[in-house]
Each structure stands twice: as structure tokens, then as C-alpha cells.
Inverse folding.
């Protein structure tokens, strides 16, 4: 058969031949005829301990768009990707083989107490007034999040424990010290004049200085001064116990005018402009042991990166502060039935309630121990003999003394009380490392305002107890010893029977709790 001039038949044969070339095997079982395939690449995603990613390893065609999110486990922080990106979610377009690693570190939580120093505006050389412009809200809602974004690289997060708006301490010639601080210069290594540190410390209110005990437990202080920043960012004040000073930068870019709040949140693309958040982050780096010896990092003039050696240094210092062993705060209570808590439960007397109250004010790793030397019916003579016969330590952090009611009740000569009270005070001071400030003397309750005390002559009883208390109070005041008056609480015993124990004579648990409300604040000051 020939094709002749039949157009339809020619078209049919052409289609059939084309179909066969595309789908039929060639001679000798040859391979199929195919079009070139799309390139594919391998994506490998690794993670360190402490977190996961939401995208699996795999082979992906070129051009595939992936969104990969790093998720930290509880107690960990995501610190960044192996390519330097610090965003939790990373978007990539696959155009080559990809190797990524998400890094996590155990989170170290440190506490900040921030002081915004208030003062009359300081006049900048441009004749513009530099006033305090940073607010508590700026710090808690903006600055701290930026500080944490920076420090996340090292697995460290900061929590603002408190913000205190604090007036400048105006001592004699304090303005001269401010002028020295403002006009001091930095050296060739970028270090400020260290002699200004004591002056900065003097400008802080003494009542807001932290004791060594308060500074334990990873508490750090940051002071923001409006007039610091003329010659340097600030100072890390390790020699004053984990303090740092930061300038508010109000003269950095506009000759002393109030800065725009955008400079609280400086963009990483313009690190040279300076910001309050970076200034704080940088000074905290100094108190964590970092130095300026790095290029284009947080501790240099520009940059935000914390390199590996500095991460290790900062974390070592932070862990050391967080893991400091606790201290045992030792209490000693000297007295009689009012001290042991006759007719109330073993933990209801005032020393036990004081111990519980103080325990809540200290660190988790601290312990508060209590020893009681007291017995119902003891006079000053009995207590003296008991102290002499017992092998008591001489390093108590706080000693309380409440004694004398049995001298009155047993009609002992008042001269005995005068002599032996003074001797007991000396003994109590000796037991508290010889520090007179570690002793608290408590007034004698007035038992005439109880059902038992109404027998006999309650008015005479009350007068005699007042004589004892007046003597003890005058003696303590003359020597600078803390004296806590609680007698008036017990004088409400008839109108408020809840203040009297079930025996109708001694204070109740409620009465002792009211004693502690007065004793605890004084004790806390003593212990700090």
C-alpha cells in the first residue's frame, strides 16, 4: 500500500511514529528517551542538646523554599544558627547543598535592679540641659527585651527585679564630684578614669546600697545617670559588688537635647550611634568578666557579637554567682516562758515565728537556724547560770533577750535585776561575735491584763512591770542597743481574749505574731 496523496493517512502515520519514538523501546532494548531532570540538593539540619527544629533533613529540588524554626526546650535558650543568624525562624531557598546547625544553651537567669538617678538638669557644654528622660516603662517594656536579645548568644537572660527612681545623694561638694565625672576622659584603650568610680558610688543613696548578703544570689545593679556619657558609656563597678553605671546618652547625638526614644532600640545596622540597651548590655558584660579586647563585638566600639571565649567567661562567672553555697543564719533566743511559748504549739512562739518570717526574706540556698535557751519560771539568775553552764557558740547572727517577769512575780529585789540584766546583755553581745548591733532586747509582757493577772493587785503588777521595762529601755538606748516594745500588745488581753493562750496567762500565737511584726523589720536590718 502506498500513501499516495491521502492527507489524512499521512497525518495518522506521523502521529503514530511520534508516539512510538517517545514510548516504545528502540532496537536491542535501548533506553527511553527523557527530558533533562530538575537539580536536587541535600539539606542537613543538626541541633545541639536543648532544643529541636521543625524541619527534617532531606533532598529538595532546586528552588524549594523552606521555613525552619528552632524551638528551645524548657530551661534552654536558642542562641543562633551556625551561619550567624540569630532569628528563631530561618527562611531559605534551596539552590545548593545546605548544612545548618541550631545551637542551644542552658538558660542562666540573672536579676537586675535598675536605679534611674534623678537630679536637677545638668547643663551640657552646648548650653542645653541634660535631664533624666528614661522611664520605668522604657526599661521594662523596651530596653530589657533588647538586652536579652543581645545576651541570648551566651544563653543568659536578665530579669528586672525592680526599678527605683532615686534622687542623687547631695552631700557636701557633690557638684564638684559631678564635674570631675563629666570632665574625666578615657585612655587610649578606651578605659575610663577609674578614680571616678568611688565618686559615682557616693552619688547613690546609701539606703539603696546592697549588703553583701543581698548581692548574693545573682543580683546585679545598674545605675542610669543623666550626666554620665559625656566621656564614656559608663563603668562596671565590680569593686563595689556587681554594680554598673550607664549614661543615658542624652548628649550623644543632639548636643544635650532629650533624645528620641528610638535610640532605646538601636538597629544593629547602625551600632556606632549608641543606645541605652546596648550600653547596659555592654556594662553587664564587664561585670561578667569580659574585656574590650575584641573587634566588631559587643565589647568594642561597634558590633553585637559575643565570641566563644567571652561566652565561656560570662557563663562561668554567672554560674558561679548562681551556685554560691548558702549561708546559715544563726538565731539565739534567751529568756523564759515568754520565749519558749508556754501553752502554745512548739512553732507558735515568737522565736519560731521570727525564724519563719526571716526565712522568707533570704535566698533559697540560705538556711535559718534557731536555738532557744529559756524555761518557764526562769529569773535573770536562772538564765545567767544556764548560759554559763552551756557550751554556746559565739557567732550568732542575731540574739534576742526577753527576761525579768519572774523577778517581778517572785518579788526579787529590783537591784538584782539591774545588775544581772546588764550582765546578760554583755553575755548576749559576746555570743553574737561581740557585735552590739546583733542584739535585740524585747520588753516584758504585762500579764496583769489576763484572767490570771486579774487575781491579786493587777494595778501594782502593771506598775512594777513598767519599772522593769523603763529600766531596760533606758539602759539599751544609752548603749545603742535595739529595744522593741511589745508590752502594749499584751495590755489588750482583756478586751481581746484571742491574744491570751488557753492557760489564761501567757500570750497566744496571735499575740506572738504581733510581736514578730515589730521585731522582724529590725532583725532584717541587723542581718543585712
Amino acid at each position: 500500500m502506498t500513501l499516495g496523496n491521502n492527507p489524512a493517512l499521512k497525518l495518522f502515520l506521523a502521529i503514530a511514529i511520534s508516539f512510538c519514538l517517545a514510548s516504545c523501546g528502540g532496537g536491542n532494548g535501548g533506553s527511553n528517551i527523557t527530558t533533562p531532570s530538575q537539580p536536587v540538593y541535600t539539606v542537613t539540619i543538626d541541633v545541639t542538646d536543648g532544643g529541636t527544629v521543625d524541619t527534617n533533613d532531606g533532598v529538595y529540588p532546586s528552588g524549594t523554599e523552606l521555613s525552619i524554626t528552632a524551638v528551645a526546650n524548657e530551661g534552654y535558650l536558642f542562641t543562633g544558627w551556625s551561619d550567624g543568624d540569630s532569628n528563631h525562624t530561618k527562611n531559605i531557598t534551596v539552590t545548593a547543598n545546605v548544612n545548618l546547625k541550631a545551637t542551644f544553651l542552658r538558660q542562666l537567669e540573672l536579676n537586675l535592679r535598675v536605679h534611674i538617678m534623678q537630679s536637677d538638669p545638668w547643663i551640657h557644654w552646648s548650653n542645653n540641659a541634660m535631664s533624666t528622660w528614661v522611664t520605668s516603662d522604657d526599661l521594662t517594656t523596651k530596653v530589657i527585651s533588647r538586652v536579652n536579645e543581645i545576651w541570648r548568644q551566651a544563653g543568659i537572660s536578665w530579669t528586672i527585679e525592680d526599678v527605683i527612681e532615686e534622687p542623687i545623694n547631695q552631700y557636701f561638694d557633690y557638684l564638684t564630684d559631678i564635674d570631675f565625672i563629666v570632665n574625666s576622659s578615657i585612655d587610649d584603650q578606651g578605659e575610663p578614669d577609674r578614680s571616678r568610680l568611688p565618686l559615682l558610688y557616693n552619688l547613690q543613696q546609701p539606703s539603696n546600697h546592697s549588703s553583701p548578703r543581698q548581692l548574693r544570689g545573682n543580683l546585679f545593679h545598674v545605675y542610669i545617670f543623666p550626666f554620665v556619657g559625656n566621656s564614656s558609656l559608663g563603668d562596671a563597678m565590680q569593686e563595689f559588688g556587681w554594680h554598673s553605671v550607664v549614661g543615658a546618652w542624652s548628649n550623644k547625638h543632639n548636643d544635650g537635647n532629650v533624645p528620641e526614644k528610638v535610640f532605646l532600640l538601636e538597629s544593629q545596622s547602625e551600632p556606632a550611634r549608641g543606645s541605652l540597651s546596648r550600653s547596659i548590655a555592654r556594662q553587664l558584660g564587664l561585670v561578667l568578666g569580659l574585656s574590650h579586647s575584641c573587634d566588631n563585638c559587643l565589647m568594642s566600639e561597634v558590633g553585637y557579637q559575643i565570641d566563644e571565649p567571652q561566652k565561656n567567661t560570662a557563663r562561668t562567672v554567672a554560674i558561679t554567682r548562681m551556685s554560691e553555697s548558702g549561708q546559715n543564719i544563726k538565731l539565739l533566743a534567751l529568756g523564759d516562758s515568754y520565749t519558749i511559748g508556754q501553752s502554745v504549739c512548739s512553732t507558735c512562739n515568737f522565736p519560731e515565728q521570727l525564724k519563719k518570717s526571716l526565712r522568707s526574706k533570704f535566698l533559697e540556698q540560705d538556711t535559718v537556724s534557731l536555738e532557744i535557751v529559756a524555761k518557764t519560771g526562769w529569773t535573770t539568775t536562772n538564765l545567767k547560770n544556764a548560759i554559763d553552764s552551756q557550751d554556746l557558740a559565739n557567732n550568732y547572727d542575731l540574739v534576742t533577750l526577753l527576761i525579768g517577769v519572774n523577778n517581778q512575780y517572785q518579788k526579787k529585789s529590783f537591784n538584782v535585776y539591774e545588775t544581772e540584766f546588764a550582765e546578760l546583755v554583755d553575755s548576749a553581745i559576746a555570743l553574737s561575735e561581740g557585735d552590739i548591733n546583733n542584739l535585740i532586747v524585747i520588753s516584758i509582757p504585762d500579764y496583769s491584763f489576763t484572767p490570771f493577772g486579774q487575781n491579786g493587785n493587777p494595778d501594782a503588777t502593771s506598775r512594777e512591770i513598767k519599772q522593769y521595762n523603763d529600766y531596760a529601755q533606758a539602759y539599751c538606748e544609752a548603749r545603742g542597743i535595739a529595744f522593741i516594745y511589745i508590752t502594749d500588745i499584751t495590755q489588750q488581753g482583756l478586751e481581746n481574749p484571742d491574744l491570751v493562750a488557753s492557760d489564761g496567762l501567757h500570750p497566744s500565737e496571735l499575740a506572738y505574731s504581733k510581736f514578730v511584726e515589730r521585731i522582724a523589720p529590725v532583725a532584717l536590718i541587723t542581718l543585712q
